[in-house]
Amino acid sequence: MKKVIALLIFIIMFGVLIIYRWNQMLAGGGEPDADIIPVETVMVSTVEFEEKISFAAGIEPEEKAAVVCKVPGRTVLRVLVSEGDQVKKDAPLAVVDDSLVRQQVIQAEAVLGRASSYSSVVQSDYKRIAGLYREDVVSRQQYERMEGEAKAASRQVQEAKAALAQLKIMLGYHTIRAPISGTVLARNIDPGDTVSQAPAFLLSRQEKVKV
Tens digit of pLDDT for each residue in 76-106? Predict the structure, then answer.
């Protein structure tokens, strides 16, 4: 009997609890609130990645110049630069013995002087004969002979000038000069050496490089 009474009391209390929860739901206008779960927000942004590739490579000048002496067989008197020096175009790099060609220049200057003096005399005589020929004082044969001598003397002067100019060019070759502006990479001669057709210097232009 006591067990029956206890069971009835449990049923009554359980029913009261259900009615109480039901009234709470109606008073709140809907179902009981669900449990609140906290969340964290994150700002999304776009990030660009730059692709970089690293590698090892040799760097060398884009332009090199091998400098060869134009008068091989001469003795080196002076070397004016060393490896690593910066030089400008046409700068002197070395000087070789020019005694032979310098003597030839002196001789050519003497020949030009004599040719010029002779030509001056002949040209003066030609003008004089030409005047006499116009006055019919001398024959045509005399006039033409003097005219030929004047032209020949003039040619001798021009030939002597050309020979002297060529020798002066050769004299200039005895100073080895830089064909470009750049850096002296190699110096292959020293004072006392006899220059050959092999490169005396190696220059590089550093403005542009290639990988």
Answer: 999 999 999 999 999 999 999 999 999 999 9
Cα separation of 182 and 86, whole Å?
Answer: 6
Q: 101-153 pLDDT, tens per residue?
A: 999 999 999 999 999 999 999 999 999 999 999 999 999 999 999 999 999 99
Write the CATH number for 180.
Answer: 2.40.50.100
Helices marked H in 94-190: 99-134, 140-172
Domain that holds residue 208: 60-97+174-211
Rounded Cα gap, residues 195 and 187, in angstroms: 12
- Give 199's contacts (C-beta < 8 A, 6+ positions apart): 66, 67, 68, 186, 188
Count up the domains in the chain and report the number: 2
pTM here?
0.63
- What is the per-residue pLDDT for 25? 62
Q: Is residue 92 located within the same domain as residue 149?
A: no
Say if residue 169 is in the same domain as residue 200.
no
Closest CA to 112 of 155, 66, 70: 155
